[in-house]
Amino acid sequence: MSKIPRNFKLLEELEKGEKGLGPDSCSYGLSNPDDITMSNWNATILGPPNSNHENRIYSLKIHIGNNYPLEPPTIKFISKINLPCVDNSNGNIIPSKFKTLQNWNYNYSIEILLLDLRKLMADPANKKLPQPNENEVYNV
Amino acid sequence: MSSLPKRIIRETERLISDPVPGITATPHEENLRYFDVLLDGPSGSPYENGVFKLELFLPDDYPMAPPMVRFLTKIYHPNIDRLGRICLDVLKNNWSPALQIRTILLSIQALLSSPNPDDPLANEVADEWKNNHDKAIQTAREWTAQYAK
């Protein structure tokens, strides 16, 4: 298999996000629709049912470096959340505590990152963790 | 890296030995399916004297599937959007394996000479193109002078 270059992979991901072809439980798109480098993305995750996240919508920011998809994006929560892989001072996701980032694979995508975060939110170990008030955001 | 199909090797050799006037396509050393493209704006168009940078990738199923192409240079054109994506039939439904990298790049150059505002990708640009044609042409010239050097 030949490897699809960063920009064309991102265009495919963007098209899926723009057309709403992905799952209903998350969304993603460019922060600035004129950004020809496609480096900064906004995303949301709909809190999983039967958890303390139910009916909440979490906002995130994603930065895609030049070596994507060889290297994973950096990703952070804007909405406050209590989750072991999230640095609760600034919302950054700590790669060593999030398997999908730690074991990053060339074929992963922004969507896989978001869906795996949502799975962690629904995980029995995390789903009843006390959560900050809704609509609170990190001040960074 | 998997070995490159003969067809791609032949096309690449010919692009270099017998280049199309006004178009250069250079493969990346680490990925021979990925090309940097420079395309001269056609004379008589508002893109004249501009040099536009594009990127082109030949997916695994090329030539059964078309190349992926986009502009990296900002361009004001009704069939090219803000991210450089191109609306062109031969890149989508009308692709045929008989077409090649060079014919695709010539088609893109022809699209610069003859925009098609009735099948737009950039709606605001297409509206301007139809309703305020002189101003649209002037904007296309200004963007060419500003970005396509």
UniProtKB/TrEMBL annotation, chain A:
Keyword terms of this UniProt record: Ubl conjugation pathway
Superkingdom of this protein's organism: Eukaryota
Keyword flag rRNA-binding: no
The protein, known as: E2 ubiquitin-conjugating protein
Extent of the signal sequence: none
Coiled coil: none
Protein transport keyword on record: no
GO annotation (BP), single: DNA damage tolerance
Matching SUPFAM superfamilies: UBC-like
Species name: Pichia kluyveri
Annotated transmembrane regions: none
Start and end residues of each UBC core domain: 5-140
UniProtKB/TrEMBL annotation, chain B:
Protein name listed in UniProt: E2 ubiquitin-conjugating enzyme
Organism encoding this protein: Pichia kluyveri (Yeast)
SUPFAM superfamilies the UniProt entry points to: UBC-like
Family note: Belongs to the ubiquitin-conjugating enzyme family.
EC number per UniProt: 2.3.2.23
Single GO term (MF): ATP binding
InterPro entries for the chain: UBC, UBQ-conjugating_AS, UBQ-conjugating_enzyme/RWD
PANTHER family assigned to the protein according to its UniProt record, in alphabetical order: UBIQUITIN-CONJUGATING ENZYME E2
PROSITE patterns for this protein: UBC_1, UBC_2
Keywords: ATP-binding, Nucleotide-binding, Transferase, Ubl conjugation pathway
UBC core domain mapped to chain residues: 3-149
A Pfam family: UQ_con
